Amino acid sequence: YQVWLEDWEVRQIAGGRYQLTAQQDHIALSLTLVDEKGPVLQGDGGYSQKGPHPGNASYYYSQPRLRSTGTITLGEEMFEVSGWSWKDHEFSTGALSDDKIGWDWFSLQLDDGTDLMLYSFRREDGSMDPYSSGAIIYTDGKISLLAPDEFTITTLDRWVSPESSAEYPSKWRIQIPSAQIDLTITPYLSNQELLVTVIYWEGAVQAEGTHGNNEVNGAGYVELTGYFQSMKSWF
User: Fold this and answer.
1) Do domains 1-95 and 98-235 have the same CATH topology?
2) pTM of the entire structure?
3) Which class for 2: exposed (0-12), middle (13-18), buried (19 or more C-beta within 10 A)?
């Protein structure tokens, strides 16, 4: 496949291999991505239920371990880079039911090879919606789905945007007792708010904690919606 927006492009160059290029002003990115785990179907074989009605759902798959190598160019300087990327593809006609105002979504790559995907839908009273969900993706690509009563996301700190005045969670404790996972998640930068048509926060985070009897570290991405305004009219 090939997807592009002007001179931003992602294209598949072979089975499980992708080329990503983008340029904006004085910044350019060129990466080769190699899928180490293969696509993972979220939910029930890719069908992710998000509410009580059949239409409150999406089709959703992840590629959580894309080995990434390439370059970042800043002005006249080019830097070789390497790391891990995560690709999500989710599509629906209208996934949310009327009682939800937003969501907190986490993707985390731990240094023991385990990956986590969690999302918590928020109701108007601030409580977690029962259609929240999650998944543990093991090193062999096998997935263990998580019901909302099998994990907790506790806010440890908050940040107020100087631009929108929205107040966002800014540090979390994630616990999954059945897998003996206990993590503290911290943003690399507090201010990763996007001031676009739908104002929300999404950005890079770091993780540290324990998995079983072992200490683990990791990195990831968090998306926070509905803190500036309800997402009801958008989804």
Assistant:
1) yes
2) 0.95
3) exposed
Mean pLDDT by 10 residues, the chain (235 residues): 96 97 97 96 94 88 98 98 97 78 97 98 92 97 97 98 98 99 99 97 99 98 96 73
Architecture of the domain spanning 1-95: Beta Barrel (2.40)
Give me the residues paired with residue 134 across strands.
118, 146
CATH 2.40.370.10: does it fit domain 98-235? yes
Question: Domain extents for the chain?
Answer: 1-95, 98-235
